[in-house]
Amino acid sequence: xxxxxxxxxxxxGKGGDGAVSFRHEKYVPLGGPAGGDGGxxxxxxxxxxxxxxxxxxxxxxRIFKAEAxxxxxxxxxYGHKADPVYIVVPAGTxxxxxxxxxxxxxxxxHNQELVVAKGGSGGRGNIHFANSKNRAPxxxxxxxxxxxxxxxxxxxxxxxxxxxxxxxxxxxxxxSVATSAKPKIAAYHFTTLSPNLGxxxxxxxxxxxxxDLPGLIEGASNGVGLGIQFLRHVERTRVILHLVDMDPENxxxxxxxxxxxxxxxxxxxxNILKRPEVIVPTKLDIPGSDERLKEFKDQLPDDVDxxxxxxxxxxxxxxxxxxxxxxxxxxxxxxxxxxxxxETKEYNYESDASPLKIEKDxxxxxxxxxxxxERLLQRSNLDHQDGIMRFARMLKGMGVEEALMKAGAQSGxxxxxxxxxxxxx
Length: 425
Hints:
The protein is an alpha/beta fold. It has 8 helices and 20 strands.
């Protein structure tokens, strides 16, 4: 089954907590704090694989989690960093932040990597908090929480040549004749419900990949028919083969069909029309098609590239493929933003920074909200008195105490930050 659009959730690993410990050994006369740092949490990394051509696997697994980093140890030993989680996707996958719609990255090269969620950094152990005033601090930091993102993966097939045209113009038949692909062929519209890929092998050795795209109709760019869900696959084709039906009994006008499809491509992305196009009149084996072809040519500009064929009789197909190969050699490459082979691109996720906010939750209770305050709580180890005093000092330094007094808080009132409640003094 072909799947080209899925939504997944990724959660990077939390950093390990820093340790509070002290050395009391025979040959360490000064002793002192010896709590090590926590290890970094695991990253979530997307990796492109050119051997895949569908996002089908994500229909069954949509949540990916990385492990937390190891907590700090005694004797100043650091916790172990968690291994990253690799998610393999097809080459040609665009990655979007589902919540904001922002394009995070484009994976178009084999083995290209994109870090979409970085693991939380490890907390510092008490070995870092010793000073001349406090030589035995019972202070340590908790590890930084991991990141959680909702992503939308959108596959845009990477093919050299794309077959476009109305339903039943002979795209699948041409693909089956020119390549070893076996697309579904039948005498009704919308036989092709998903793109098919095939490799054209030529005697010259200039092989290329061709994609049979589901039939477009007028209004496709607005979602009519199979609509915009398959137009995206035209974006990455370097040459367009525009098939037009010459059957005189189909009740359609070839020129109107040709103009209609070009209008839909322009509405979706006008850059597509700047690429080389070969017009391919089809079904030249049907009686009366020659006269229709002559009328069609008379309506076209003189400088168009046109190659009539009959896929059933194989007439003109080989010449068309050789000509398409020559057009490809002169076609401008489609440039993608690709980093160096040994470089992994990182997405720097930034949540919406919320300012400090005090809400009254009752006559004697208040709720404190704000990204910086909540982050401070998550990083603070409140299991020891020194850690609690440090947390209180930092709250005061951030202006929380003053803001609470302005909001009417008095000694004895309860204050809540996330899931932590304490008494205001």
